[in-house]
Every structure is written in structure tokens, then in C-alpha cells.
Specification:
The complex is a heterodimer of chains A (about 160) and B (about 350). By secondary structure, chain A is mainly α. Chain A has 7 helices and no strands. The longest helix of chain A has 25 residues. The radius of gyration of chain A is 18 Å and the shape is globular. Chain B is mainly beta. In chain B, β9 and β10 form a beta hairpin.
Chain lengths: ~160, ~350
Amino acid sequence: VGRDQTVISSGINAEYGVDVDAYDEEAYEDEARVQDDSGVAEVTERASKVKDLLSQMKTKEALVEALKSPPVGRDQTVKSQNYDTVMWVLKSFKGSDIDAAVADLSMVEVDILMKYLYKGFSCSPDKAANLLLWHEKVVAKGGLGSIVRVMVDRKGV
Amino acid sequence: VLSSCWKRKQWYQRRVRGTKETELQKHIERVKCVDWAPNTNRISTCAGDRNAYVWNLNAETGVWEPSLVLLRIERAATYIRWSPAEDRFAVGSGARLLSVCFYDNEHDWWVSKHIKKPIRSTILCVDWHPSNHILAIGSCDFKCRIFSAALKETNDKPEISGWMPKLSKFSALLAEYETQGWVHSVKFSPSGDRLAWAAHDASINIVHMDSKDSVIRSLTPSLPLLSIIWASEGSVVCAGHDNYPSLYNINGDTLSAGTRLDVKEKKAGGGMSAMARFQQLDRTGADTKDSTLGTTHQNAIVELRVTATGGDGTCTQFSSVGMDGKMVLWNLDALASSIADLKI
């Protein structure tokens, strides 16, 4: 979502093309936004593992695999690849199986899933119906705290 | 006697059960925080006017007299706490630094020393370690830090402890922990061996001084917690935007799911007649009049304070103040017996 873009600035500064904030001596570099977790290879490998698991109808295991160490750095291609993997898994679930799958997730996995759900709401509004179904189940498990953690998260998925 | 802080320019002292006793007016901006030192009977206040005052009770006149503290900050002061020995206090501010203030006998005023690096944003909360020379700070740069506050001026003799494995001078950083949100509240356990902090990512974090790298982190399903206190060495009570306090127990290296301490009985019977219901619906568009929340506090709980402790140092009573203007006293003993499975 919008967090991944560095905004140069708007208005007068944009016209001059100068990023005034870069010259500020007391500028705060948010360390959290610089890290990078998964590389392309890892994400591709994960996608194929998930594909295998789904073809064997092991949807729960596929979900857990898809939610492992999501890429949170600045590389957009890697992130959207992982996003596609997660969306694919979510789509493969029958409505009745979602409860069981969510119940087995740890709180960390619940948080990651919630982040992808919200990314889904903003990037893929066509999938909204399915995502809303997932959202309801995930909130039942993770509570409002998991939604808060999506909002305060400075490393977007 | 309790004191309560008002988000206006003065603040009030109240007796338990309500009547206002005194009004202390000196600050010219909102009073942000108050702390009362019980043994030396001094009150310290800090406000948005970048000042802090220490109030001494004049025994003869019964009037509280303020004395100015030179904080030397250029932003509002946000938090103030007396140390356990009550010979100094710490003031956090929006100037991204902490002022540790002590009394200078020679000049007869309170002076401050700053802890500045590496704090990058407003300080939201401070807590003193029982040893009187270590403190923990929670700030808006998403970090919780522990510093040494050993002052040469007051002839401190710091000892090596779990938090301070080698003797460190004033403002030495002893530990630093990161969270995803602002750190709203930080507290040392009664013995000082553990540190707990609550952050805006709705998490509770606890660390033991012997294993400083392993933080017990509980991602709670509730809304962010604003205040945390220790009920005993192994359990914490926290409260925040969910309007009710809850108790968490430390089990080895996990934190139990919180037990809600605010259990309200549902109002028995008293239903309206069908006619009254329809009249209500017609008049107001809602068929029940009750718009109050099911919790004692009607808005977020901002601060918890231990008001009474039992023989072994465990908390027996604590108070909570909320944004709804209420102050509620909670008796943990009474709650322990009425709520099943409550372990303190």
C-alpha cells in the first residue's frame, strides 16, 4: 500500500525537485522500513511448495506455508509474488474449512494473515466477498488487537 | 487522601469518596502528570508549560507551596515519577529527553541532568527500579529502554546487578527493546527483576534481567493497553482502550490469556411493557434507553496505580482513572474470590 513509496514532497518542493527533509540534521530514519526478509528465490520456492500442498488438498498446511516469513522490505515484485501466493491459498478454501484452519494458527500467523487480508481489501476489491468471510473468522481468533497491529505496522506486506 | 490531575491548568486534591480538598494552581498550561511521594510527603507536577513544580506542605499553614524545578526543556513535560528513595524524580518530555531532578542544597533549588541519547521521540512513561539508580523509559520511537541514573552529585554507590552487569555512569544505556507501537506504560516488578511494558500494537512485553534477550511477548486480542502494573512478582494487571482492567499471569515463558477483572452483573428483570417499547421506538428510534457500555469505565482507562499492598508485597487494591472522568478502586482480594480461576 502507499507506505512503500518514498514521497519526495508535494507543493512547492515538488516543483523544485528538492527533498527538503533529507537535509534535516535531526531526521529520523525509521529503521523498521529498511529491512528485507525474503528474497525472490525463497518466495518462488514457497509458491511451488504451496502449489504442491494445494494439489494434494492440504489446504491448512498450504496456508501455514504461505504465511511463513513474508517479505516486508522495499522490493515490490517479491512482495506482490508472495501476495499472489497467499491470495491463491485463501481462494482455495471451502467456506466451512476456514474455522478449523484459523483455529490452529499462532498469534503471529494470525497477524500476518490479517495484514494480507487488508492488503487484499485495498489491492483486490474483486475478491472482497471471500476476504470478508476470512476477516470475520480471523477477528474471532485474533480480536481487535490483530487489526490494531496491522495499522501500526510500519513494514507493509 | 488521593490526588487527581486535571487536564486544565490546575489540579485538585481529593479525599477518598469525593470531596475536593485543595486546588493547586501554578501551572499555566495543561497539567500532564502528577506524582505523590508518600514518605517525604511531596507532590510533583509537570505540565505543558515546560515546567515542573515540587509542592511541599507547610505544616503550620496547611498550604502546599510550590518550588520551581529547572528542567531546561523546550517542549512540554509529559511524565513525572519520584524515585523509590524520594530524593530525586524523573521527568519525561516531548523534547526527546529525560530530566532527572535532584535537590541542590547549596542553592536551595531542584536541578536536572538530562538523558538524551539515543531517545528519538517523546517520552511517554518512566519507571524507577527499586535500587533508586536505574530507570526504564518508554517513548514514541517505539522503544523501551533502561538507563543508569547513578548521580555523582547525590553520592550514589551503584552496585552491580542483573540490569547493570558492570558499573555504568549516568545516562548509560543498559538495555533497549523494540515494539511496533508507542510504548505507553513501563513498570519494574516489585523486586525489580522483571520489566513489563505495554505498547500501542496491543502487546504486553515482559523481560527478566537474567535473560535480557528473551522477551515474553503477548499479542493480545484487545485494543491497545495504556497502563500496566504488577499485582505480584508473576502477574500484571493492565488496562487501556478496552475500558476494563485484566490480569495476566506469567507461566514460565508465556503469558496467560488475560482474565477480565470487570465483571458486571446484568441488570435483572425490569423489562418494559410492549406499549412503552413502541413509544420509545417512536420517540427516539431505539427501543432501549440504555446507551452505557457494559464496563465500569465508560471510556479508556488511562492510568492504574497500586493503592494498597498485602504483607508479601502483592497488590491488594489498585485504582484506575479513565477518560470518562471516573476513578475506580478495585479490590483484588474480593475479585479473586468472585471470579473463578483468578490466580494472582
